[in-house]
Task: inverse folding
């Protein structure tokens, strides 16, 4: 399950509500939760959320995705001590000017955040690099060197057209074939991650690089068991669609118990329709 924790409106879930819904999902068999956004670290209660979720019986993995700019040493340490298992940090380039152009943030803040995560003890740490034509496509080798130096995993992500301006996508989409040919030459071993749209994992002598193709592809949809919980309490079974959301926060606020929440989760999952309109196996 993925939880989107960015601030959006006045109906944003509080820590207790997030925990109650998470407990119900874990009792239905979900074993992994990822906190995403927006930017989850803008929430002042993020460490409390992590602490509450990490203690749920049956939860095997709790991770978080961040841009790293707010990942101060003390914050990273508190997140680790609160029970966060893994962390993904978005890093499109090591070029300060390009980084600022893409994110409007300061590269040094993110690099400080990565170092803070390393010192806190997080392992593995993954760096998410979205490849953009004519912007950062030639920065991959530098990123591999940085990954080797810091002992983190690098994820090369192909630009996805969903929710993007058509002109922007055509201008900046870059197929990863060239990068994958380079990785094949450098790799000492190549694996595929099952149930993650057969993601390629290239084990290099001193680091690991994964390639991520657009997630609306057939392999992903055929194996997708993800369930997203938006910050305003809606269950979302497909990242690419917003027309099949299920409100679970309102029933909870009106007094729904755990068993009622479970039924709402099951009903939402039964409405799952793959983006590519092919049949998937429902996990619940």
Result:
């Amino acid at each position: 399950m993925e939880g989107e924790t960015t601030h959006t409106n006045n109906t944003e879930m509080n820590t207790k509500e997030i925990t109650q819904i998470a407990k119900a999902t874990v009792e239905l068999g979900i074993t992994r939760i990822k906190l995403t956004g927006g930017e989850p670290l803008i929430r002042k209660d993020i460490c409390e959320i992590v602490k509450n979720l990490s203690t749920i019986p049956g939860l095997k993995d709790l991770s978080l995705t961040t841009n790293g700019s707010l990942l101060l040493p003390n914050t990273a340490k508190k997140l680790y001590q609160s029970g966060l298992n893994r962390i993904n940090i978005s890093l499109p380039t090591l070029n300060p000017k390009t980084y600022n152009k893409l994110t409007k943030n300061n590269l040094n803040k993110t690099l400080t955040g990565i170092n803070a995560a390393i010192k806190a003890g997080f392992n593995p740490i993954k760096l998410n690099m979205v490849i953009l034509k004519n912007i950062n496509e030639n920065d991959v080798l530098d990123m591999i060197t940085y990954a080797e130096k810091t002992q983190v995993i690098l994820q090369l992500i192909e630009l996805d057209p969903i929710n993007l301006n058509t002109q922007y996508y055509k201008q900046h989409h870059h197929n990863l074939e060239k990068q994958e040919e380079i990785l094949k030459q450098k790799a000492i071993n190549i694996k595929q991650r099952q149930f993650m749209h057969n993601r390629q994992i290239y084990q290099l002598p001193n680091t690991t690089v994964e390639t991520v193709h657009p997630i609306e592809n057939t392999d992903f949809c055929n194996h997708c068991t993800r369930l997203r919980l938006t910050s305003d309490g809606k269950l979302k079974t497909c990242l690419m669609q917003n027309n099949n959301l299920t409100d679970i926060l309102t029933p909870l606020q009106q007094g729904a118990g755990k068993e009622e929440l479970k039924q709402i989760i099951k009903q939402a999952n039964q409405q799952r329709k793959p983006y590519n309109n092919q049949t998937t196996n429902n996990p619940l």
Notes: The first strand starts at residue 2 and ends at 4.
